[in-house]
Design goal:
Keywords: Fatty acid biosynthesis, Fatty acid metabolism, Lipid biosynthesis, Lipid metabolism, NAD, Oxidoreductase. The chain is α/β, with parallel strands linked by helices and 258 residues long. The protein has one domain: NAD(P)-binding Rossmann-like Domain (Rossmann fold), CATH 3.40.50. Helix content is 39%, strand content 14%. The protein is built from 7 helices and 7 strands, in the order βαβαβαβαβαβααβ. A 7-stranded parallel β-sheet has the order 3-2-1-4-5-6-7, with helices on both faces.
């Protein structure tokens, strides 16, 4: 029943084969979607080469640089979507960043510049991407972002990223309210801790994963592909009545009090 054949999907945030975005891209492709990929450019082209080789089996129709701190580059990437496909159906936002020094120690020690950068990349970027995707979603669409429990509850060493995720979840609600009349749905997936390049910056990530394995009802954490399955569902007509929601994919950990 889950069929995304003919749907055009842009996936952001793939860094390597451990990325949650990679799990999502694989499941969208398996469901039949046409895949487009953005990557973070760097001076030596290392990210471009690494991501290009990884996603090659998905035969991406679009492969473009997109640094979300550069509005011109964001707009250029979506001009390529317009040129190649003419319309967009699915936007996957898997972008987050904070300086390592702002992910440990006292939260009150967060620098002004670090706070601004974390919210610009991790939170505002969803709003910016939604704004440029909106005119291309002429037949409705689905926008999905990634959150984490640290956006609603205190998690050690998450610090400024918790504030960013709280803002991201509220952005989902405001965007859902704005875009709903155009049949564009906006949702977030709050995934359990997974060992990724991004999560490796969080101190004690392995302890967090082991704790979830001991406490979560399913007695394990989740995989990138499980998050990908939920993203594919939220991208499909099976989820046509769901918008503005934060869906927990965390082996049930969020329900536990102790």
């Amino acid at each position: 029943m889950l069929d995304l054949t003919g749907k055009n999907a842009i996936v952001t945030g793939i860094a390597n084969n451990r990325s949650i975005a990679w799990g999502i891209a694989q499941q969208l492709h398996q469901a039949g979607a046409n895949i487009g990929v953005t990557y973070l450019p760097d001076d030596k082209g290392r990210f471009e080469k690494k991501v290009s080789e990884l996603v090659e089996p998905l035969n991406p129709k679009i492969f473009v640089p997109c640094n979300v701190e550069d509005d011109a580059q964001v707009e250029s990437a979506f001009q390529e979507v317009q040129k190649t496909w003419g319309k967009l159906d699915i936007l996957i936002h898997c972008l987050a960043f904070a300086q390592k020094e702002d992910l440990s120690g006292d939260f009150s020690a967060t620098s002004r510049a670090g706070f601004a950068q974390a919210l610009s990349i991790s939170t505002y970027s969803l709003t910016k991407l939604a704004a440029v995707a909106k005119p291309l979603m002429t037949e409705g669409g689905s926008i999905i972002t990634l959150s984490y429990l640290g956006g609603v509850k205190v998690i050690p060493n998450y610090n400024v990223m918790g504030i960013a995720k709280a803002g991201l979840e509220m952005s989902v609600r405001y965007l859902a309210a704005e875009l709903g009349p155009q049949n564009i749905r906006v949702n977030a997936i709050s995934a359990g801790p997974i060992r990724t390049l991004a999560s490796s910056a969080v101190g004690g990530i392995l302890d967090m994963i082991h704790h979830v394995e001991e406490v979560a009802p399913l007695r394990r954490t989740v995989t990138q592909l499980e998050v990908g399955n939920t993203a594919a569902f939220l991208s499909s007509d099976l989820a046509s009545g769901i918008t503005g929601q934060v869906i927990y994919v965390d082996a049930g950990y969020e329900i536990m009090g102790m």
